[in-house]
Amino acid sequence: MTWARPAGAHRRRPKAAEPSLLAGLLVDGHGARLTPSHAVKKGRRYRYYISAALITATGRDGVQNWRLAAREIEDCAISILIDALTSPPRLLEGPGMSGMPGDQIRKLLGRAAGLAAALRRSPEERAKIVRELVEQVMVDDKRIVVKVRYRVLVSGDLASRASDEPDASTIELTTAVDFKRHGIATQVVLPGLTQQNQLSRCDPALIKAAVRGRAWFEELATGRARSLEELAKRDGISRRYILRLIDLAFLSPRVIDAILEGRHPVALTATRLSGFDLPLDWAEQHKLLAS
Q1: Are strands 26-28 and 134-139 parallel, antiparallel or unpaired?
Q2: d(Cα 151, Cα 173) in Å, to the nearest integer?
Q3: Cβ within 8 Å of residue 23, ≥6 positions away
Q4: Range list of H helices, 92-203
Q5: Are both 26 and 119 inside the same structural domain?
Q6: What are phi and psi of 28, to 5 degrees?
Q7: Residue in 177, 171, 162 with CA at minimum distance from that of residue 24
């Protein structure tokens, strides 16, 4: 096995071949940075994030040194982000969220849905979102903590280039993890996300429909999207489907709160909600959706 030079010189380059998505962001429980590296075996390239001590042979007793399989830890970080961005209860635990007006909360959820969608797209888009949204990813022997920049969620301010300055305020997404040894590397698994979703009373499809409807409406109202056709082509869906969901942007705050907290009627599914001819009068909405 031949070890190559750590990829620090290629840090934060989203268009590099097979880039290290968490370069400069991943640290251990003591705050020590994990460095991108790779190995070549039988012509195949394997990527890792490793503790500095494994490079310099200066390990200390009692300190965990890591050689993490890069794809697994990167996929875990993306999964944690998408889970949080599409799970309003987690987002609303952040600093300053408790006193935020309902209309601002709905805007925030729309932005979060847009970021989650971008994280599922091309590697270039995913790298850009991670660089702007994530302050740090910490891994220890029991958990992963992804620190998300509060500014980006609240204002939607994605800078033109990644900033290396620490953000004044972050939201910490903490998830329990298990580790499995595979060859010389350690793989990461996330049992916590599946269990958390199973225990949730919320209907993810219903929340997603409401959030997408609001997000699409805002894109059209602000001019970020020029037409329904543009949205449909970009997101790979039909114009008719967008029209069905855009009406959900006018749901009353009371209905939105019930959906986010899982207090809506069991029979109120995303399909049923999007099929209603919703009245603009909130009192009439309450009567219709409660029936």
Answers
A1: parallel
A2: 15
A3: 7, 8, 10, 11, 12, 36
A4: 102-119, 123-133, 150-155, 191-199
A5: no
A6: -90, -175
A7: 162
Q: Are residues 82 and 162 in the same domain?
A: yes
3-state secondary structure of 172: strand
Q: What is the CA radius of gyration of the chain?
A: 21
d(CA 156, CA 110): 10
Q: Give the residue from 199, 223, 240 where a domain finishes.
A: 199
Q: How far is 6 from 241, CA to CA, in rounded Å?
A: 47
Q: State which H helix or E strand residue 233 sits in.
A: helix 228-235
End-to-end CA distance of the chain: 67
Q: What is the DSSP letter of 248?
A: G
Cβ(47)–Cβ(17) below 8 Å? no
Q: Which amino acid is at 90?
A: R
- Residue 24's SS3 state is coil
Give the integer Cα–Cα distance in Å for 35 and 22. Answer: 9
Pair 59, 84 in one domain: no
User: For residue 234, what are its two tokens?
Assistant: 């970009």
Beta carbons of 173 and 80 less than 8 angstroms apart? yes
Digits of tens for pLDDT over the chain (291 positions)?
Answer: 334 444 444 444 444 445 789 999 999 888 889 999 888 877 777 888 988 765 555 445 444 677 888 888 898 899 889 888 887 777 776 666 666 666 677 777 778 888 888 888 788 888 999 999 999 999 988 889 999 988 887 776 555 334 445 555 788 888 888 777 665 566 666 665 544 443 345 677 888 888 888 889 988 988 888 899 999 998 888 999 999 899 898 998 888 888 877 777 777 888 888 888 888 888 888 888 876
